[in-house]
Amino acid sequence: MTYALRAYEYWLFSYRRVWRGSVVTTALNPILYLSALGLGLGKLVNRGPGLGVPYLDYVAPGILASTAMLVGAFESAYPVMSAIRWTRQFHAMLAAPLRIRDVVLGHQLYAASRVGLAAGFYLVVIAAFGAVHSWLAVLAFPVAILLGLSFSAPVAAMAAWLERDEGFNALFRFGVTPMFLFSGTFFPVSRLPQGLRELAWATPTWHGVDLLRHLTLGTATLWPSLGHVAYLAAWVAAGLWLAQRTFTKRLVT
Amino acid sequence: MSADAPLIHARGLVKTFGGLRAVDGIDFEVARGEAFGFLGPNGAGKSSTMRMIGCVSPPSAGTLRILGLDPVRDGPLIRARLGVVPQQDTLDTELTVRENVLIYGRYFGLSRGEVRERAERLLDFVQLGERANDKVEPLSGGMKRRLTIARSLVNDPELLLLDEPTTGLDPQARHALWDRLFRLKRQGVTLVLTTHYMDEAEQLCDRLVIMDRGRIAEEGSPAELIRRLSTREVVELRFAGDPPGVDAADFAGAVARVEVLPDRVLLYTDDGDAIVPVAHERLQPQSVLVRRSTLEDVFLRLTGRTLVD
Predict the structure, then answer these.
(1) In the listed set B170, B201, B226, which residue is the last one of a domain according to the structure?
(2) B-chain residues within 8 Å CB-CB of A82?
(3) Do B90 and B183 have their domain in common?
(4) How far is A102 from chain B (nearest CA, A)?
(5) Å from A252 to nearest chain B CA?
(6) Which residues span the domain enclosing A113?
């Protein structure tokens, strides 16, 4: 673990050169999204048959989940490819005593930190908008990080496997963006046609969204929640296992 | 490990990539304090060998011991005591010169204070002290190489691996780098380097092996190899048009070997001055040059003049 922390330190070090812009974006985004969707669009939605709760309360955890997912995926896509091909920092780490698993873990710790930073801001803003209805929302913080990792770990594996960065276009166009839109973030999955609905249930995003929503609304129950957590953890574990393999194949030959 | 045990010991070392045998069963040893070179054309297996020594490429077969340890089992332990200058720089060009050394030192678990102190000393050593706060991006190739060397010394390594340390540098930068490597050698650091520059090998290496197609073709000190595999001198004859046919027998045993190239003829001999009058008379060359035999002559004789890619 101490070896992984050495790799983690590099990522913090390199984050220092972008942190100002990054923090402003991280803080501004939730305010913009919640104003536009929760307050603006929400006025229209609330006139309809209704979701049982005000649209702001409904959509806030959805935006939190999609942020965790996007940050997790982004921090593993180009940064991993860069550390393999451009800054070649993974090669530098492996010339030192670090091993593949330290390199993978150190980077995932960083991805988790970035998700945590964004999720922390979001939760505070959501609370300030009055969309948090239970102390259970405190648990939304670790759950958001877990959701972020369920993306960052598999995407890191993919980034090490890809030959060119064009592959990321496909990932975001056909993977991340549809999940962002259709996994229960902005409207219930039950409105989707059959087939697509089942597909949505299989995404880590839906499990994250559903759990986060129950936590901020205060309607979470134990077993379904644990089920969601287990499903997300399985994605993280599979992602780490794959990353160990693709990193090894790419870096230690 | 006793003091005189070899720092690196390889027997029947093999590296295969799919069907390609990049390293095809080589034996060598490197002693403490020595400057040892792998010389060879592109694709000879030099870099693959270096990566195995650097513990980032597991051997496909054979025995390899570094500092008495097994690179597959004890990789992190060995790497803690190695300095590596890879063929392709691994600098983060968005960070400053100093930051690159700091972060690298932290990979070795050095405390922040310790690594800060070492960074100052090492950057002065490679004459980059004044650029410490500059970004790496705009530095010249030679400066980046020197930075990579400074960084590779941050853990005070016993063994420094340099994979083509001066490829692509201008003559000034190469000499500046050689000068630093000489100093390290004098301080007792064991150097292992690959190069395809003969002058570099002659300048830096106590002992070297010439590799060709994954195998070791010859081994010895530069002087020994020249003595054994070439003559003392070479007479180069240049001609205005196509060179005439020449036979070593024309020189009554004074010429060991003749090589006819498109624009000139090389006569390998132990006494160039004795040959010159005869050559003038028989062949009427446009110009004549007598020079010492170099490692390059040995190298070309062993590995041929055909382009390998």
Answers:
(1) B226
(2) none
(3) yes
(4) 11
(5) 5
(6) 2-251
For residue A181, how many C-alpha atoms fall within 13 Å in the half-sphere facing its CB? 8
User: b or e along B185-200 (b: 16 or more beta carbons within 10 Å of the residue's beta carbon)?
Assistant: beeebbbbbbbbbbeb
User: What is the DSSP secondary structure assignment for residue B130, as one 8-state letter?
Assistant: G
Tokens of A184: 């229960």
Best mutation target among A13, A107, A249 (most B Cβ atoms within 10 Å) is: A13
Of A7, A88, A96, the CB nearest to B79: A96
Distance, CA of A175 to CA of A154 (rounded, Å): 12
- Comparing A45-49, B6-10, B233-237, the range with the smallest average pLDDT is A45-49
Report the predicted TM-score, pTM, of the whole model to 2 decimal places: 0.90
Of A6, A89, A253, Cβ closest to residue B106: A6
| pLDDT, tens digit, 9 for 90 and up, residues A167-222 | 999 999 999 999 999 999 999 998 999 999 999 999 999 999 999 999 999 999 99
Based on the structure, what is the number of domains in chain B?
2
Give per-residue pLDDT as tens, B132-175: 999 999 999 999 999 999 999 999 999 999 999 988 888 888 88
Task: Identify the pLDDT of residue A25.
Answer: 85
Query: Do residues B132 and B149 both lie within one domain?
Result: yes
